[in-house]
Amino acid sequence: MRELKILAVVVFFALLTYYGVEPYAHSVMHKDVEGYNFTYDGTADIQEATEALEEAQASGRNVAKAQARLEVKKAFWSEVDKIAKIPGNVANGQAVFGTCLACHNGAGVNMGGVIPPNLDHAGALYDKRYLIAVIKDPAMASNVDHKYENTMMHPMGSVTAMVSDPQQIADVVAYMLAKKAGDVTPKAAYEEACARCHAMRYSKITQLGETPSFTDEKDELAYKIKVLQEQELVEAYMGKLPPDLSMIIRARSTHFLETFVENPQSQLEGTSMPRVGLSQAGYDKVHEYLTEIGDPSKKHREALGPWVIGFFVIFSILAYLWKKHHWRDLH
Amino acid sequence: MAHFDENAKPFSNRWLDDRLAINTVKKVLSTEYWIPKNINFLWAMGMVLAATFGLLVVSGIFLLMYYKPDINMAFDSVNYTIMTEVGYGWLWRHIHGVAASLVFLIIYIHMLTGIYYSSYKRGREMIWLSGMLLFIAFSAEAFSGYMLPWGQMSYWAGMVITNLFEAGSLELTGLVEWIRGDYVPGDAFLLRFFTLHVLLIPLVIMGLIVFHFATLRIPHVNNQDGEDIDFDEAARLYKEGNKKESKVIPFNPVFLSKDVFVLGIYFILFFYLVFYHFDFAMDPVNFDPADGLKTPPHIYPEWYFLWSYEILRPFPKDPGLIAFGIAQIAFFLLPWIDRSPNVAPAHKRGLFFWWFWILVLDMIALTVLGKLPPEGIYNTLGTISAIIFLLLGPALILITKLEKKL
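Above: the input entities. Below: the structure tokens describing the complete assembly.
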């Protein structure tokens, strides 16, 4: 019994230390950010603008500007809300979608900083309200309007002139949700939602998509130059080259990734990363791909673990019997 | 010249004994190496440490086959080649990572056991000192190994720790550059820490382990009551078959059978961590590749260095370094600052009992505070904990001087 008491003391202090340096320390170091389950109704944006206004009022500077920004955000999201209630017509939406294809055509040509994303699975990956919002005002929807205040125009900014009628927006979104919502593989989800900015070298994906294999070294180098040129454009547009995401699944916690993808500003204020508007289902696909590449041993671990642990359980039982045999006549 | 049996078959027991005295060696090191009977499972921590070190060596050799000590390739050789392309590479890596962390947990338990039972004094000073040397060698091994994946924390911890050699106001930047082989951690830095990690320090550790075992042979290990056992008399009783009356047991097989059982239980925990909870030993920050232009918001060492880091951190530069230096050598001095004549477990030593638990709690407090950001209340608590640690030394001298002989 004495041994068990000693063991209890040792375990207690070991767990106390563990609790202090892991769960507790990390809860202090990382701010707690609320998630909204990948729905986009502007709650987070209005909250941010309200806090900015309170800060401005406290410091007495830029109060009018902060006030105006809050009003704009409120108006924008209530507008989105109204459009979301209009029933869309899929057939009409298909016609409007033709306008989108002018840029979102999979040609892989950089336009104003980035390659417009392929929309083949837009309806399966993105949230309905987000799609409405992004057509209405791309900068506001992505919550990076601070980037475009008076310096430049959002690369997709021209859409506001092309598709502005609420009915049109409802139609094209209805079309995407109905016709661009087929089964999407985790890899395609990553390529469509993330890869135009974030390379993933462990699966040979660059900003230009999956790297083909070459037999001629000259072709390979020529392709590499094209990748570097594309990265330069992205870097110029974003301020820095967005990080490669090969290992991001192990470098950030699950909660961080979820809340960051949902609203980058919530974790990294002022970041130039846009909100991409993934729905829960779309994010799950992306997360699956990040895990597949960044933590490929997961299924092997789960398969092997019980056997190894089972081995040591049997080992311990036999060792106990051996010990009993030798200590039997000592006391 | 000794007598050789001409009829002995080559490599038979007799033949080997004539040449190597294997029967004597076996007696001295195993079957007649006497261990007190009055012990608990904490006495098996030495064997647990040896086994963990063995796992570190074996897993380390497998990792070495694929690791590339080059700043452009190191990160990917670990995170891609070993984790994705090498069969069971992930298993060796996780074993190595978990073992590197657990080895320190067991070292701390082993050390604190030694302190609790006064096993560092009155004939056992060399055991304690060789153990402390092992602690330093393991610390160097852990630090150099932490550089190898070349992630953000490798780089920045390397930067911070090598900066310590600037020695505060002495500003020995030349020394720091000499250690790094560059102005900042780079290829030369990585390659030299790699060499230390896979060659020099393991050799030193192996030598020290042999030495640590050797220091045990004459004074023998302590027992739960600190009793001064007449080993010759106890051994005679045992050999005569009076096992119940004898206070000792032979290392092999009696002590070993208990060690192996403890090892079994330990390995259940160990492999549970390897398969299901390895992330506690692998900080997420280190999965971002090293970037000299991007300082992580929080830089902290692995958990086992946090207590001494927190003794450095709350003070201004120079006093902080001095306090840090004292913390590094404090435990070496233990056999001499403990002035008590008693070798006994702490619960029989009056005030020493309280001193011991204050030490444990203070070190845990320092460990936790060492990881927390040094702001507000944490800063205050950190300073208080560090001062308490520094005061524990003089306090020990005082209370052990007052201690009455049992």
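Note for the figure: The CA atoms of residues 23 and 29 of chain A lie 10 Å apart.
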